[in-house]
Give the backbone structure.
Amino acid sequence: MNSLLAFMSLQNGLMQFPTDIQTILSLVFYLVFVLFIFYGQRIQMYVMIREVEGSLYRLKYIKDEGRKIAVETIKEIGKPQTDPAARVDRFLEYFTIAPQNLDPAGIVWKLEHILDIRDDRLKDEVKLMAPAANDTQTNNLENTLEAAMALNYIYKVIRHFYLLGKKTLSLYVIMQLQMILPLIMREAEAYASALKAFAYGQPIGDGAGALVAAKLMHGHEIRKLPKDCVTATVQIEGRTAFVIKAEGPGGNVGKPGDAIKTIVDENGGKINMVIMIDAAMKLEGEGVGELAEGVGAAIGGPGVDQFKIEESILEHHIPINAVIIKEDIGDAVSPMRKEIYESVDKAIERIKQLMLERTKEGDKVIIAGIGNTIGVAQ
Amino acid sequence: MSKNSASNATTRVSPFVLLIIILTLVLSLTALIIAMSTFDSNPLAAGWLTLIGALGVVISTYVLLQARRRTQEKIATPPTLTTVECTKCGFKNIREFQRGDYIFKEAEKCEKCGNPTQISAIYREVKEGQKERYRF
């Protein structure tokens, strides 16, 4: 009742609104209008800065959590004598300088060499930080630290452009940052969920290809291949399949380029087909775990392994086919989704169909499951 | 150091801003109380005070809730499930993921036949509501 009366009195008040107040309101309106003409862009910039600031706080929180998880996991698994925090901080600032590309001839080998050195150095660092960790745990810790390193880098770059934009009051610096921020935040959130998956050794979405290979080779005799890869000879639909994957269950991608080259060389180039299975980025609107088939070397990373695979198959004119399992960046680095797990069996069926259609009985086929094999043995 | 940095990251709203928000909220509530008491004597002023008070309460509560929501956001860790399958009878047992689990790891003995079991799957389930839906 009271509120109804209040509303009615408010209505009456508005109707009896004095003319001078109306004039003041009109003046205020014009003032605001003029203010927006001259300072609209600046106000817009401050709104953007505030938005970026909010994301930066979130990034800082994620980065600090990443560091905390890494330190705690090292303490728990590695049983170090001293506090690993200082060493972790040093690790997070680690950088790699790409080889000079003014003369691109031979750059792949230079890049491979640099990446090998980096990998060895990171592994040594992890072993020093976590002396009690076994090989699987060392690989998982390395992956955890690399995710923390990526988060640290993202935070620093965003902070750099935020401060630069604030310092120069450049709308365009801030605007670019604000526009790209949703994508960056998505990536950062993905790495954040990857941290725990790596720390606990859970299979991740990227490991879908490795899981396909693991399912095909499970129960067969397994031998090691260079570098950090394993293979098993499996009879599928009357064809001899050399199934390759990175050695699990530790976080590892291996060097499938070297592994495929070894198998091709061992068979004197008499391989009738190469089939690669990998997780691939889906476009928005596509379903998680959808399969697609095509040709070419389905492998990500810096390109060294793709180059090596292409060189090997070109030398012997071996046809190469690819089956990809679609997922987004968040799914690729976080614990494997049920949809992706279920698509693994469908991928195996697709491989068998491909072999039946494109090869003859008695042919030799290489099946390479690409991806991080964390949480997937063989 | 890590604890300090983490807490700095979560305390997003500065005490000064928080003070202003709370002050606005208190003043708005006061305006509403005054409006109620002066309703009979001066209905016009009471009406305006009600409008200003209600607006103040709505805006300050919204800002406060927004700030709290942002500070409370944590890194989500989705529950991950492990499927343990008997190699002989095929009996399946789904349990929560435990550290050290991996696919093809030998697990505890089968509840049904006592034979060795093996981890056959590790995955996380995304709830129906969280899945993206597209019209195209």
